[in-house]
Design a protein that fits this description.
It is built from 3 helices and no strands. By secondary structure, the protein is mostly helical. The protein has one domain.
């Protein structure tokens, strides 16, 4: 990967991470915080994949996969809890 493209992508994703973090902190509604946190983890997963490609190290991909799966499960659980008041039936 071209070095300039990597730094531009990493810088842009870092800025987006900061914006998403501000969204998590400043949101009033629970659902908005949940969506902002989901965007935050999606951006972090993308940043891990970008570093895995730049360093040709597959351990970053493993961490990105685990983070994506945990984020998906936690988002489903939080949305169900917010909607029904319980996580499990």
């Amino acid at each position: 990967m071209h070095e300039g493209v990597f730094y531009a992508a990493a810088g842009w994703m870092t800025i987006l991470l900061i914006v998403a973090l501000v969204g998590v902190i400043r949101a009033d509604a629970v659902i908005v915080r949940l969506l902002a946190l989901d965007v935050l983890t999606l951006l972090l997963t993308g940043l891990l994949i970008l570093f895995a490609d730049a360093n040709t190290d597959s351990s970053y991909l493993d961490a990105a996969l685990i983070l994506a799966l945990l984020s998906f499960i936690s988002t489903l659980a939080a949305a169900r809890y917010h909607h029904e008041g319980r996580i499990f039936s």
